[in-house]
Amino acid sequence: MMLSRASxxxxxSTLYLAEHASENRKISVKVIAESIDVPSPFLxxxxxxxxxxKIISSTKxxxxxxxxxxKNQKKNVLDIIENIDGLNRINECFLGLxxxxxxxxxxxxxxxxxxxNSILGKFRDKNIMEFSQEIVxxxxxxxxxxxxxxxxx
Amino acid sequence: MMLSRASxxxxxSTLYLAEHASENRKISVKVIAESIDVPSPFLxxxxxxxxxxKIISSTKxxxxxxxxxxKNQKKNVLDIIENIDGLNRINECFLGLxxxxxxxxxxxxxxxxxxxNSILGKFRDKNIMEFSQEIVxxxxxxxxxxxxxxxxx
DNA sequence: ATATATTAAGACCTTTTTATCTTTTATATA
DNA sequence: TATATAAAAGATAAAAAGGTCTTAATATAT
Lengths: 153, 153
Ligand code: FES
Ligand code: FES
Fold this sequence. Notes:
The structure is a homodimer.
Chain A: H1 5-20, H2 29-36, H3 40-52, E1 57-59, E2 65-67, H4 70-73, H5 77-85, H6 88-91, H7 109-125, H8 128-138
Antiparallel strand pairs in A: 1-2
Bound molecules: FE2/S2 (inorganic) cluster (2 copies).
The first copy, chain A, binds a DNA duplex through residues 4-6, 26, 28-30, 39, 41-42, 44-45, 47-48, 51, 58-66.
């Protein structure tokens, strides 16, 4: 019931592409990595894999970068997770039992299951573009920078 | 928003102690490790730490082992998590933002938050003994062995 | 007292995950 | 066609998590 850091980065940066990139406004790894505050060589690797998985697209050279085609836009967040982590990890039992399943429920299964269904639904029922539009209109964040408005010495 | 394997083991085995051990029925690491199907040297380490944290108790020597005192029984599951993982990990943003917080919500924050509150409540509002009694009466499992009733060649 | 069973302590190893670096390849455009 | 730019590929490194092993300490029962 948990995402790797890798798939978190992949989700956030794909949503960033959905919002900011297009076929004639491709964006480089470096820019994205800075925007959503993730390590850029690591993100580059993830993007290679997402391109192979046909979740996102890329072109090399000047003005090259990453973007989403119409087809890419039809993918959903669960496709990203599947591409990076596979589906096992997110389906695991919250307490680590070998199966997560209502017939042999762990002590928190019936609290976890509704949440799991609801978040998997969220990740499956809208495509990337719809998901992105929703989060933009609702003002959801893909990064939090400058939390540090704190007392410095 | 996730537990390490270590704290999962710790939770399951402490609940096992609550159910099966007592001051005059102490249980060895080896027996517990086999019962809930976790690696025993690893569990031994975790138990050392839980003893230091006064979550569980132990005595050495023949008929020694681990058990819960009255005081131990008053601890809750969140105390176990805090002792092994600290509290940061379970409070992290589901998508990895640097803060999980309603004023800067990630795209799934408002799905995650109610679940987080509910599971943290579950882990905090009953002590170990009460929690254990509840899961026993409801038939919740601490392990699933022998899932393999499958077709073998 | 002695033998034995069991935890405590700490060093060590392995695997997985995360992150970086270097070289090659493709592409746009000057 | 040369040059610059950006991704692809793949080797490598660092860190974290998970797991094991050996020796020491200690409590119990005989
Ligand atoms: S979450 Fe534990 S069995 Fe489903
Ligand atoms: S879960 Fe992402 S901000 Fe709360």
